[in-house]
Write a structure and sequence with these properties.
With 314 residues, this protein is mainly alpha-helical. It has a domain at 104-311: MetI-like fold. The chain is built from 14 helices and no strands. α2 (36-63) packs antiparallel against α14 (278-311), α5 packs antiparallel against α11 and α8 packs parallel to α14 (278-311). The protein is flat and about 75 Å long.
Length: 314
């Protein structure tokens, strides 16, 4: 009896298996690439991309045309004869008021403003955010609340008191004063970002390091800092974009010989002397916006990771 049942199961096994195989794969069918949902989604994304890229295209093609071709009025047509003379003039010989040295002087002024402002603000904000997230000290909640309030105070409200303060310190109209202003105004929001990111990391890592005898700086440099690359990229992009594109602080807290690149660009574009050279204006605008664009495209993936990992967590 046992042999017959074993034989029956052996003979019926392949048939049953073939029957199951013949019934086809189970589960949900894969979605088609050209489904209605995908067509609508990618169509809307394409329209949004076209909306933002069209002005950039006009700026690029206009900067490579001569003025006789621009006067024809075909702003969307590619240049018949490509020329980079407007770019050279925008960089080295365009007039920005009394000076005719182009954007080159403003570029190096912006670099001297940007590098220390970004480095100091990110360094201080990262340590402050780490302390607020992992080291509970007396008054930490009050300090954090003050930072939150400071992050949302309009800059325009603070301009006059800061002018008086910098004048009393003897650094008004200098690049040093502008660096201090950018550093201070960047720290509240950066501290919030770092605090939220460090809060999202596993608390067990911090506790284990404390049990092993690690101190404040050892935990920061050996544990927290290596894990915080995405949020450092987020902070760097925010600071680079905000400081490099700033116009208000640059025109208020500096003098003509130390104007940043954005103020120089404004003087070129709004100049009323001579012929309006649209190709030079477009080239100057592209040169001014090149640095934050390059920084974002180089580190954009880490920027998205940092935002998703901790920048929006509480």
């Amino acid at each position: 009896m046992a042999n017959s049942s074993a034989l029956q199961s052996a003979t019926s096994g392949p048939d049953a298996l073939s029957g199951r195989l013949g019934s086809g794969p189970s589960g949900r069918k894969p979605r088609r690439m050209l489904s209605r949902r995908n067509i609508i989604l990618y169509g809307l994304l394409g329209l949004a991309a076209l909306y933002y890229l069209l002005p950039l295209y006009v700026m690029i093609v206009t900067s490579m045309k001569g003025m006789p071709e621009i006067r024809l009025g075909n702003i969307f047509s590619p240049p018949v004869e490509i020329t980079f003379e407007p770019w050279a003039k925008a960089w080295s010989s365009a007039c920005t008021g009394l000076n005719c040295d182009g954007l080159s002087r403003g570029f190096w002024n912006s670099v001297r403003i940007l590098v220390p402002s970004v480095a100091v603000s990110i360094a201080v904000a990262s340590v402050s955010g780490y302390a607020l997230a992992n080291w509970r000290f007396k008054g930490s909640n009050v300090f954090f609340s003050i930072l939150i309030v400071g992050a949302f105070i309009p800059y325009q409200v603070m301009i006059y008191p800061i002018v008086i303060l910098l004048r009393e310190l003897g650094i008004y109209g200098t690049l040093t004063g502008l660096v201090i202003v950018h550093t201070i105004f960047g720290m509240p929001i950066l501290t919030l970002l770092f605090r939220n990111y460090f809060t999202s990391l596993p608390e067990e890592l911090f506790k284990a390091a404390r049990i092993d005898g690690a101190g404040f700086w050892q935990i920061y440099f050996r544990i927290m800092l290596p894990m915080a690359l995405p949020i450092f990229v987020v902070a760097m992009i925010l600071q680079v974009t905000g400081i490099w594109n700033d116009f208000l602080f640059g025109v208020v807290f500096t003098r003509p010989d130390s104007y940043p690149m954005t103020v120089q660009l404004n003087n070129i574009v709004n100049s009323v002397q001579g012929v309006k050279e649209y190709n030079v204006n477009m080239a100057a605008t592209l040169l001014t916006g090149a640095v934050p664009l390059i920084v974002y495209f180089v580190s954009g993936r880490l920027f998205v990771r940092g935002i998703a990992a901790g920048a929006v967590k509480g």
